[in-house]
Amino acid sequence: MSTTALVTRYFEAFNAKDTDAMLDCVADDVAHHVNEGLVRVGKEAFAEFCAHMSRCYDETLTDLVVFEAEGGARAAAEFIVNGTYLQTDDGLPQATGQGYRLPAGSFFSVADGRITRVVTYYNLADWVRQVS
Q1: pLDDT band at 36; cut points 50, 70, 90
Q2: Domains of the chain by range and CATH?
């Protein structure tokens, strides 16, 4: 499977809210760099993050564009996050079902047909403004 196909499959699984399918796209020792947070390493930590996110947020990504570096070892994607804030997350404004929409991007490293690194960026201040 090409890197573009793998990253697209990862995002399709995200939109389907299929964490198991997302986990199938990542390596056992995946390094997950979250926006404004610590790096989480491994599938278990990634699964815990996904479970937390599913409790607090209902998100769908649209306008996805995937870019693949020559050789397929790295990729990037940009997209729009369309979400609803479901449950108050630690240190963030109170959740009351607010909607939000913001641009975001992710960067990937790929080896042996699996994603080994995911880095996601978005403007947290813009998100806070939208839900406050």
Answers
A1: confident
A2: 3-131 (3.10.450.50)
User: From CA 27, how far away is CA 96, in angstroms rounded?
Assistant: 36
Tens of pLDDT along 77-95? 999 999 999 999 999 999 9
- On whether the CB atoms of residues 99 and 84 are closer than 8 A, the answer is yes
pTM beyond cutoff 0.85:
yes
